[in-house]
Write a structure and sequence with these properties.
single chain; two-stranded antiparallel sheet; about 0% strand
């Protein structure tokens, strides 16, 4: 069971929101007993200990809803080829764009634009998320249409607004112009530049994009001096306002799809923007119940990945915290509380081995 599911169950148990009040008004004896709550909380703690077993978290933090980042296993030879492909402009139709164009590793894997600029000067309709730590996401893209990194890597090259690579056979022909790259590639992938092989290599490289040793991770591993007292208070507030219910796990997000504007209409209050895709997960599932439901964005390195939200509507981290509190929790933290939460969020910035 993933950390987000555990956090949601824990919230439901401890806040007495399940069964719902309307159900209990008819079924008077349906509420959880104290014994049942204790049993569920024991199971949650056991599940978290299992998830934390190899994270290096100190014993006192083994029941936290978040955990330190640990490196993922990858094929080094494939990752080396994937790195070359990630920066190769032959994946775009006119040879002007690479994956790194919209996901520059020197800028924490995000381009800093509200929506990215694609081929022939076209702009997309949704904010480009960072590729750092994407390996920890349950699914890829804001609407979750890609089940894994391979599927995600295959999307932009075929998107007419993003890279417009034309066809995978056309991309293969452009890549074959680099004889040394083709030779190295066939040593690992004997059948050459196919869609499957290209996306597999890029995915292996993206598995290396984990940012370990953030100050907060060091704190979770037992170094009490790794973060400031303000950041510690910020983490406590983060949980107090139930941010952790969705922003949980190693990546503090990426495991669930949530409605934007749970407590009030975010879209009615939002300032006017240019072209923006507000459909959410429904674009993939075709289920009207998923309209305006988006993948919870991970919070790792969040101080470096502005602007925020699927629409890129704000570039200020404190403002983003204030907006989320208002529209997702219906609460208004004091300015001092917001400042402390921001300090906690800044402590999530880890070491990027590919930043240069």
């Amino acid at each position: 069971v993933d950390e987000t599911s555990l956090a949601k169950i824990e919230y439901a148990v401890n806040s007495d929101t399940m069964p719902p009040l309307l159900f209990r008004s008819v079924h008077w004896k349906s509420a959880l007993t104290d014994a049942e709550k204790k049993a569920l909380n024991r199971w949650i703690a056991q599940s978290r200990r299992a998830l934390n077993a190899e994270s290096g978290a100190a014993k006192k933090f083994e029941n936290e809803p978040v955990r330190p980042i640990t490196a993922r296993k990858f094929d080094a030879a494939k990752a080396k080829l994937g790195e070359k492909l990630f920066h190769n402009k032959a994946l775009s139709g006119d040879g002007t764009l690479s994956c790194a164009t919209c996901h520059p590793l020197s800028k924490a894997g995000a381009d800093g634009l509200r929506t990215s600029k694609g081929i022939r000067g076209q702009f997309g309709d949704i904010n480009a998320p960072t590729v750092l730590n994407a390996v920890f996401n349950a699914r890829q893209f804001w609407d979750g249409r890609a089940a894994n990194l391979e599927e995600q890597a295959g999307g932009p090259p075929m998107n007419p607004v993003e890279m417009d690579g034309g066809s995978w056979s056309g991309i293969a022909k452009r890549l074959q112009k680099d004889a040394a790259l083709e030779s190295d590639f066939k040593k690992i992938y004997p059948d050459g530049f196919t869609q499957k092989n290209i996306t597999n290599a890029i995915a292996e490289f993206e598995k290396t994009l984990t940012t370990e040793n953030a100050p907060f991770d060091k704190y979770l591993k037992g170094d009490d001096s790794a973060i400031s007292e303000a950041a510690k208070s910020g983490y406590a507030l983060f949980k107090q306002y139930n941010c952790h219910v969705c922003h949980s796990g190693a990546n503090l997000g990426g495991n669930s799809f949530e409605f934007m504007g749970l407590k009030s209409d975010y879209f009615a209050a939002r300032k006017k923007l240019g072209k923006t895709n507000d459909t959410g997960r429904a674009a993939f599932t075709k289920d009207e119940r998923d309209v305006r439901k988006f993948k919870t964005p991970p919070l790792r390195n969040v101080e470096l990945t502005a602007p925020y939200f699927h629409d890129g509507s704000t570039a200020d981290l404190a403002e983003a915290v204030k907006i989320m509190a208002k529209f997702q929790t219906g609460k208004t933290p004091e300015d001092g509380e917001i400042a402390e939460i921001v300090q906690f969020l800044k402590s999530l910035t880890g070491e990027n081995p590919h930043s240069k």
